[in-house]
Hints:
The chain has 19 helices and no strands. It is mainly alpha-helical. It has two domains: 183 residues, MFS general substrate transporter like domains (Growth Hormone, Chain: A, Up-down Bundle), CATH 1.20.1250.20; 194 residues, Up-down Bundle (Growth Hormone, Chain: A). α12 runs antiparallel to α15 and α14 runs antiparallel to α17. The radius of gyration is 27 Å and the shape is globular. The termini are far apart.
Amino acid sequence: MDPIERRAASGPPSRFAAGTRRVTRAMSTGVRVTARVTASGSQRTGRAFRTFARRDGAEQSGLARFIEMHTVQVAGDAALTVSLAGTVFAMPTDQARGAVALFLLLTMAPFVLLAPLVGPVLDRFRHGRRWAIGTTLAIRGFFCWVLAGALVADSPWVFPLALVCLVASRAYAVARAAAIPRLLPDGLDLVTANSRIMITGLIGMGVGGAFAAGASRFGADWSLRLAFAIYIAATVLAIRLPAQVDTPVTDETPRIRPPLRSAPEERLRNLPHRVLHALIIQSGARFLVAFLTLFLIFLTRENPLPGWSTPVLIGGAVAAAGIGNVLGSLVGNKRVAPPPTPTLVVLGIIAVVTCIVTAVFYAPWSLFLISFVGGVYTQLGKLCLDSIVQIEVLESRHSRVFAWIETTLQMAWVLGGALAIVLPLEPGIGFGAAAAFLALGFLLAVRARVHGIRITPAESPPRQTEPPTRAPHTRPVRRPDRAPDRGLEPSVDRAREQRFGRSYDDRYGSGY
């Protein structure tokens, strides 16, 4: 064949086929390289996460397994939140103030059952705490699957089903806070342990939210089915937690049957002064966050700053609050965490001063500053409050105390949001009123620290909930800055008796 015929035989179709093969090989090579890089990055990320979760003796104590379970369940919560973004549980910031007020009332609905019922029930089943935690996860998984079908059918059962999921979520938060002291390594304090759990929770929130956002493109029911799968995995991890999560039934820790109901004034009277002081200060953080969330949105629409659009200002404030949250978690995760009570006092004072500065100087920098302070105050303050409760309150009452604390904090959140929608949209008036509320709460906290809250006791004495006899002291008393003895409440009571000069129950009572 001569050269002309060969060139004719290798015409356009032949060159097109060769080019197609080269493109196909390049694409396959790119896919393989991307897969290897992704797999390698995932392995490195997984190793870094496991190293972070297991360091400082957390693997030996069982805290690492609890952290892994908590990360998975937070991913499920993020998927559930993304799924409910278009329902009645989404904050209607673009609507009238009446709709926002209705939303604030709806946020209190799960807490109607939390303090009077869920907390005491969890205390009764503290000897099977792993199964209690697993039950809260399994309930959410089951109702997420049912809720997916209800959303597709536009059923009126959407709100009740979502409400059950939210109640189970708050019950898990209470059970989690009560379980952490039993898994605390010897070289770690409670603030650091709580902070480590918060940090990994942020990771789980980001991963779960990203996957749920992708699934929601096919419909909210698919992101709910994803949440179902995540919750089932978390349920298995919860059941496989180490046995020390459960309080063993021994002569020193009998199966206590506390009353399921107690009056609010009785709970308030029986809280230790240090816990009550921390609770009031941390309520200021929840109040401030809710106030900022709503007041900034309405204020920037009514009185925009020159040269700044509302979306840019709100986005900057959200970014500043997020940075504050991360910083608060990192400060709490230090090897030697800051002391809880002085940290709360400093945070409360800084919040009051920042509100006054924002009231006087209404500018972008002051809005970003108060958002940043609110983020640090909320995150680091909650870590300090949890550690104080875990130290000061008997283990047999952890769940009910945490349930009541969560309810009180949510009431502060609703109060802050309510103040934001009733005040006139003037920076000086709004932030000045917020500063006044925070200052008043701080003074009340100082009084509670010194004198407590004095309430006239009821005519009928509280029912005896603890066994009348005390087991002998069998273990050395831990330092006051460490968690209570795991499962040895009498030794904790003995230490407090030595500290206060009389028994803990005589001083604070036994009704939570």
